[in-house]
Amino acid sequence: MMVDKRKERTVAIPTSSMADIAFLLLTFFLVTTSLDLDKGLGLTLPPQGDSLPIPKKNIASILINETGGVMLDDEIVEVPRIKDIIKQRLAENDLLIVSIKTDRATKYQIFMSVLDQVQLAEARRISIAEPER
């Protein structure tokens, strides 16, 4: 009579190299992932110095309220029209300074749209005024 001598076998997954594999995967994803970094506004700021009085005829004031309404020199305008108006004013007065002032609750997207229109009009003197508190 034969006695059944089966050995119980346990199947085990070797975990000795698991840390190595996790480290390699982590390294792979860190190296291959690209991150979008905000680069900020591409404006060149003048050196700090004394402020000089500027005649009112040389300033184009743009005000943006919290709802996205835009006023250019006390006249309500649509954002796409800003480019044409500023371009015309620059042709008349090459010393024109465009002053953009916002409310604290103004959406950033609206501010950037207005700034883009001013830059498309090729205005080189842009003043970004601090919002009122």
Describe this structure in words.
- The chain is α/β, with parallel strands linked by helices and 133 residues long.
- It has a domain at 56-129: Nucleotidyltransferase, domain 5 (2-Layer Sandwich), CATH 3.30.420.270.
- It is built from 3 helices and 5 strands.
- It has a 5-stranded mixed β-sheet, covered by helices on one side.
- Helix 2 (82-92) crosses helix 3 (108-120).
- The radius of gyration is 31 Å and the shape is rod-shaped.
- 10% of the residues are buried.
For this entry, give a set of tags.
alpha/beta; five-stranded mixed β-sheet; 29% helix; rod-shaped
Lay out the secondary structure:
Layout: H1 18-32, E1 59-64, E2 70-72, E3 76-77, H2 82-92, E4 97-102, H3 108-120, E5 126-129
Helix pairs in contact: 2-3
CATH fold annotation of the domain at 56-129: Nucleotidyltransferase, domain 5
User: Can you tell me the CATH architecture of the domain at 56-129?
Assistant: 2-Layer Sandwich
Runs with pLDDT <50, length 5+? none
Query: What value does the average pLDDT take?
Result: 84
The order of strands across the largest sheet is 3-2-1-4-5
| Molecular shape | rod-shaped
* Class inferred from helices and paired strands: alpha/beta
Would you list the SSEs in sequence order as H and E? Answer: HEEEHEHE
Please give the count of helices: 3
Question: Which sheet architecture does the biggest sheet show?
Answer: 5 strands, mixed
Query: Portion of residues in helices?
Result: 25-40%
CATH class of the domain at 56-129: Alpha Beta
Question: What's the Cα radius of gyration?
Answer: 31 Å
Number of strands: 5
| Beta fraction | 15-25%
The CA-CA distance between the termini, in Å, is 99 Å
